Amino acid sequence: MSVMKVLVAGNPLLKEVSKPVEKIDKRITRLLKNMTETMYAENGIGLAAPQIGELKRMVVIDIGDHVVYEMINPVITKKEGSVVGSEGCLSVPDFTGDVERAEYVECEFTNRQGERMFLQAQGLLAIAIQHELDHLDGILFIDKAVSLVPRQDEQV
Ligand code: CO
What we know:
There is one protein chain. The protein has 2 helices and 8 strands; from the N terminus they run αβββββββαβ. It is α+β, with helices and mostly antiparallel strands and 156 residues long. The radius of gyration is 14 Å and the shape is globular. It has a 5-stranded antiparallel β-sheet with strand order 1-2-3-6-7, sandwiched between helices. It has a 3-stranded antiparallel β-sheet with strand order 4-5-8. The structure holds cobalt (II) ion (CO). Cobalt (II) ion is lined by residues 89-91, 131, 135, 156.
């Protein structure tokens, strides 16, 4: 496993739309491991593949309970409610900001075994899912934030 360099806002790769993963092979499972290791090394609670320069629809999330969600080709299938909360991002080292998100989401993704999974999420997990999936479409939280403040210490 390796800790990868996290790209920072201004890098054009962060604005690209990532491509679906066609086949889960060693390269993909290794990438998931590297993403998780990088997320932990940087004290983040989520990381999307494009943040380390891989334009693939893959994210990892651990909101702090050491349950790692490895999501391949994730899609949000339902959103409910609305909540505004402060977010940060490993690719935006200098700012946090308030972003409006759905309060509850349902999503589907493929796990590393190739099984299609269904997940219901609320609270921080729901926000992390929305934040990370935005990365797969080239969207950063600063594109959506209603306010930005100099960084403190949350990282999504
Ligand atoms: Co982010």
